[in-house]
Amino acid sequence: MTDQIIPDFERGVEAALFASGEPLSVDRLATYVGDGDIKAALVAIRSRHAGSGIELVERGGRWHFQTPGDLAHLLRREREEPRRLSRAALEVLAIIAYHEPVSRAEIEAIRGVQTAKGTLDVLMESGWIRPAGRRDVPGRPLIYRTTADFLTHFGLSSRRDLPGIEDLRAAGLLDPIDVAFDALELAQADETD
């Protein structure tokens, strides 16, 4: 690597990111390093670390350092035990991710069964969903949405990166019954045309 003179502001942004225990937004970085072109500093830091043992990534508008995926095999011993979610919790999380903001009643209508309060509590404790206000309808039900931690955990830059129905089908993640229902709906739609 050639000798580089790195501006103090850029060094400050890099130090704040390195020392932080969580990903940081541009606004949060500004509270540490003050006014300056934080976005330009992030681009320079990302470029400087490209191809090295760490990389700077942005997930859901927040920045953090991580180990590149091709080096994961070196760190297998450091892996923490993955969190196990029930099928109901996974269904609820998927519904919230794809339909947010969504109320508990809307979740139950999509699932076709009642959702235990504990299921929503587990997802909130994990930091993957949060209350997002109240729906402006009678009863003013609480609505939920995913968090930046959800995006970070699942390696998504934004909700637009969630797989579509064709991606899920191609990966073999849809039950054959789901495929049959889709075909039936298409056939019924053709009959009405």
UniProtKB/TrEMBL annotation:
Keywords (A to Z) from UniProt: Cell cycle, Cell division, Chromosome partition, Cytoplasm
Gene3D superfamilies assigned: Winged helix-like DNA-binding domain superfamily/Winged helix DNA-binding domain
Entry keyword Transferase: no
NCBIfam families noted in UniProt: SMC-Scp complex subunit ScpB (TIGR00281)
InterPro entries attached to this UniProt entry: ScpB_csome_segregation, WH-like_DNA-bd_sf, WH_DNA-bd_sf
Any matching Pfam family: SMC_ScpB
Keyword Cell division: yes
GO biological process, one term: chromosome separation
Name the record gives this protein: SMC-Scp complex subunit ScpB
